[in-house]
Amino acid sequence: MPETSPNPAAPPLPPLAAQADRLIELGVHALARIPAGELRAFATAQDADGRHGDGALLAVHPERAPASALAPLLSREGRPGFVVTDMSDVDGFGPLDAIALTDAPLYVVTGVDRGDHMSDWSPEEALPALMKEERTPLLLTEGIHWVLQQPAALERNRCFMTIGSRLRKADGTLDARTPAIWISNGTGRDGRERRNAPKVGWCWWGNRHTWLGFASATSRRP
């Protein structure tokens, strides 16, 4: 595997109550059919619980708020986020079998980390290493939630993959594409008007990229 080196950590997340306000401001609660009061009450109770520690992220279940609906809410330098044109099936990327995702509409992801130390690893190399560390790779929707709450978590040359989400084909095998979130250069089919916009795309399972880490967490709690 490639050598690893420490990189600066992504900025800390705000309290969960502030994250709830942010989701409401963006209209995610309406998208997910969750009353604003219910969302605020859940977040406030989780803050009061006090057991989540630093890096706790408020997440909406992907069936309530899919990636295709969340991505355009991302923003950077006044440009909205988008999903690449050859990923029209983005909402078909579901949790790996090893990820036990709660049925609850809201949950908390703890110990979120961008995985900078795994830059220049392939997803094929990173997944078993994360599992060995008893960490769980982020889902694509969780990664989008993170950038919605903390846009500075996405930096040029320090972006991340979300390999907890994979697409299972009709024959039962996994699609070789693995989702990631990075910043568009405004080239090719992205279009010049999208330069510097947050971008939901994909990379091949066996490929390495020096500018992509592997976002992960310690747990998911309903």
Task: Provide structural commentary.
There is one protein chain. With about 220 residues, the protein is α+β, with helices and mostly antiparallel strands. It is built from six helices and 14 strands. It has helices spanning about 15-25, 30, 35-50, 65-70, 125-130, 140-150, and strands at about 55-60, 75, 80, 80-85, 95, 105-110, 135, 160, 165, 175-185, 200-205, 210-215, 215, 220. The strands form five sheets. Strands 4-11-10-8-12 form a five-stranded mixed β-sheet, covered by helices on one side. The chain has a three-stranded antiparallel β-sheet with strand order 1-6-14. A hairpin with a 2-residue loop joins β2 and β3. It is globular.
Defining key terms:
222 residues; alpha+beta; five-stranded mixed sheet; three-stranded antiparallel sheet; 14 strands; disordered N terminus
